[in-house]
Design a protein that fits this description.
Blueprint lengths: L6 E11 L5 E12 L2 E6 L2 H8 L5 E4 L4 E4 L1 E3 L18 H14 L3 H17 L2 E6 L4 H11 L2 E6 L2 E3 L6 E3 L1 H13 L5 E7 L9 H12 L2 E6 L3 H11 L3 H8 L6 E5 L5 H8 L3 E5 L1 H6 L7 H6 L4 E3 L12 H16 L7 H15 L16 E4 L12 H8 L5 E6 L2 E5 L2 E2 L4 H15 L6
Parallel strand pairs: 1-4, 1-5, 6-7, 7-8, 8-11, 11-12, 12-13, 13-14, 14-15
Antiparallel strand pairs: 1-2, 2-3, 5-16, 9-10, 16-17, 17-18, 18-19
Bound molecules: zinc ion.
Zinc ion binds next to loops.
């Protein structure tokens, strides 16, 4: 499509996190992309054109369309799209132990691959250029991410189960192999981390061993933290401490950490987390759907803790659409605080872009500025959800349907242009995912 030529995005309304912790909106702006980097953003067409050089370039005419950073979906289990609409109206513990775990017992490598491609395709269609993933057989999800061209931060489990019930052995060699795989493929778009599922799932001795492994490998940890009231009560009963303090004692926060949910944090826990390299991930749909509760996002941000946004898996969402998460995040915060100014649109957009990108190891993404990676999306202002447009920032966070995403570029490469997926075969993905979904829900493979 773009054949590696320099690209000029001409006459767009650029909406981006700025250096002053806000969001800047620039009308009639031009964006020059050379290779995988944005080299110019501004209203001076001659300056933008000069950067492209004297050779041929590709030009896209904006005519007032919106150009904004590709989204970061900072918590999810991509292949769980296979379980979409298969386990609903259940509380987290019943949902997880009675429905999800039995289905996951049947998961084969090809199912994870098929589900990963389906999830990635849906994320590309809704403007997401990078996602965090915590699931099984991550090496096949790496393959799917590289095929699609999306950025991903994926987990290694770093352990195996033995024949005895509950016997698990840590495997630093597995983690090292996974880190090597991530570093050697995808030209910097694939980042490794270690999964520590939650404070409630493993034997006590396993946690310090896993934390030590992540530290030795120099990688981050992904975890679920303080998701439900039951988790907190069980943790206090088991260890005499709440989850944050217990995880700190295990050494989990010795390395950068992406901690999803964080619904039940008290002031002391927030103070502790603010001193660590921890990014919390707000998952409003999943927290609502599983009846977990409302995360105190405004208090977390006020404590100085970075908060990103994530969909969680499609089994508890049931979609992977960051537009819906942004809207719900803002509305929940306002309704909960009885204050319409709580969690304003600019804060929400930053959570969905630069905060998430940075936490996943993609610090050069998440902003439309000279020197940043060319990770961007275009919103078609002709879509009825954006008509009339009004304030562009409000339009993005409060009113846009994700089908208004016209194009998505990651690392200087168009993954979707004018609603056509350029790296993935959508029809084949649908067919293979349906086969896998039938199998894991107890059917035979047809
Ligand atoms: Zn999750």
């Amino acid at each position: 499509m773009d054949n590696g030529l320099p690209i000029l995005f001409r006459s767009y309304t650029v909406v981006t996190p700025d250096a002053a912790a806000g969001v800047a909106v620039t009308e009639e702006a031009h964006v020059a992309v050379v290779g995988n980097r944005i080299e110019y953003v501004g209203t001076d067409l001659a300056a933008a054109t000069q950067i492209l050089g004297s050779g041929p370039h590709v030009e896209y005419a904006g005519r007032g369309k919106l150009l904004l950073p590709a989204f970061a979906n900072a918590h999810g289990h991509t292949a769980m799209v296979l379980m979409r609409n298969a386990a609903d109206d259940l509380n987290l513990h019943d949902w997880l132990f009675q429905v999800i775990f039995p289905m996951e017992k049947r998961l084969r490598r090809q199912d994870v691959y098929n589900g990963s491609l389906l999830g990635i395709a849906q994320m590309i269609r809704s403007g997401t250029g990078a996602c965090a993933d915590m699931y099984f057989h991550s090496d096949v999800t790496v393959e799917a991410a590289v095929t699609a061209g999306i950025r991903m931060n994926l987990c290694s489990e770093g352990k195996v189960s033995g024949p005895e019930p509950g016997s698990i052995t840590v495997r630093p060699d597995m983690l090292e192999d996974f880190v090597r795989l991530c570093k050697s493929t995808g030209e910097g778009r694939i980042q490794p981390s270690l999964e520590i599922h939650s404070v409630y799932l493993y034997d006590e001795a396993l946690y310090p061993a896993l934390a030590e492994m992540a530290k030795a490998a120099g990688i981050s940890i992904q975890t679920h933290l303080a998701e439900t009231r039951k988790e907190v009560e069980d943790c206090v009963a088991r260890y005499g401490r709440r989850p944050v303090e217990q995880m700190e004692r295990f050494g989990i926060f010795e390395v950068p950490c992406l901690a999803a949910h964080a619904v039940y944090l008290d002031a002391q826990e927030m103070e502790l987390l603010s001193a660590k390299d921890v990014t919390l991930v707000h998952n409003p749909s999943s927290n609502m759907k599983l009846g977990s509760g409302v995360a105190p996002v405004c208090a977390q941000l006020a404590s100085g803790i970075p908060v990103a946004l994530g969909t969680d898996g499609a089994a508890s969402n049931n979609t992977l659409d960051i537009y819906r998460e942004m809207r719900l995040a803002a509305f929940l915060a306002k309704g909960n605080a009885l204050d319409a100014s709580a969690l304003p649109a600019a804060t929400v957009l930053r959570m969905a872009t630069d905060t998430g990108m940075k936490a996943m190891g993609f610090a050069d993404s998440g902003r439309i500025e000279a020197g940043a990676k060319a990770d961007l999306q275009i919103l078609d202002t002709g879509d009825l959800s954006l008509c009339p447009l009004g304030d562009p920032l409000s339009a993005i966070v409060y009113s846009a349907d994700s089908c208004a995403v016209e194009s998505l570029m990651v690392d200087g490469r168009m993954l979707m242009h004018k609603r056509e997926l350029l790296t993935l075969d959508e029809e084949r993905i649908r067919y293979e995912a349906a086969r896998s979904a039938r199998y894991i829900t107890g059917g035979t493979e047809s």
